[in-house]
Design brief:
The chain is of the alpha/beta class. 31% of the residues lie in helices and 28% in strands. It has a single domain, classed as Maf protein. Strands 1, 2, 3, 4, 5, 6 and 7 form a 7-stranded mixed sheet that branches. The structure holds inosine 5'-triphosphate.
């Protein structure tokens, strides 16, 4: 086996790591992907970009290699004006999917999206790079599906309007998801450096 440089994905979320490693495995990249849970600091800020930059820098002193973090959020644009957005983690733990559905139960039309920001610290240049992805859709009227994680059982994308994200395989979700889009941008960037 080649002696490949290691690239760390700093996350405590095993579902995210599973999605990312599946996509990485399909690419011929000269990196060995590893997961590390360093419990980065999540500040409360107005945008995912700010959270991602802070999260990235909060673990810098603990690593001497290239690494990346990801910050994602679920935004119910109609009727919740983007809530939970940057509060997605807290709201998932407190209200959960049932809580979101009860907030929107009197509305027929909904609009929602997932956004992802990947922040990479690239050791050779000591620079930070951001890669973004977004997928648009709506909120399902019911909780459906048992794959994925988090808000997946209540999100239906415009691209696959017959299924929630929790009814898709990892491969299918990666193909259209916020994280898949951001990750393919990261992968293209790494390939150009190789
Ligand atoms: P990290 O350790 O990587 O920070 P996390 O679970 O805290 O993992 P985020 O802060 O990025 O992840 O995400 C905020 C919440 O948004 C998360 O707890 C999930 O409930 C939800 N979420 C993120 N990505 C999702 C996805 O692809 N599908 C469904 N829900 C998602």
């Amino acid at each position: 086996m080649k002696n490949q440089p290691k690239l760390y994905f700093i996350t405590g979320n095993r579902h995210k790591f599973a999605e990312v490693s599946e996509l990485f495995a399909q690419e011929d990249l000269n990196y060995e992907l590893r997961q590390k849970d360093l419990n980065p600091t999540e500040i409360q800020a107005d945008t995912l970009e700010e959270v991602a930059r802070f999260k990235l820098s909060s673990v810098k002193s603990k690593l001497d290699v290239s690494y990346f973090i990801e910050d994602a959020g679920f935004f119910v644009d109609i009727p919740l004006k983007g809530f939970p957005g940057v509060y997605s983690s807290y709201v998932f733990k407190t209200l959960g999917n049932e809580g979101i559905l009860s907030l929107i139960k009197n509305f027929d039309d909904t609009k929602a999206h997932f956004s992802s920001v990947i922040a990479l610290y690239y050791k050779p240049s000591e620079q930070i790079y951001l890669f973004k992805g977004r997928v648009d859709g709506k909120v399902s009227s019911k909780i459906k599906g048992n794959r994925g994680f988090g808000y997946d059982p209540i999100f239906i994308s415009d691209i696959q309007p017959d299924k929630t994200f929790a009814e898709l395989s990892k491969l299918e979700k990666n193909h259209i998801s916020h994280r898949g889009i951001a990750l393919r941008k990261l992968i293209e960037f790494l390939k150009k450096l190789n």
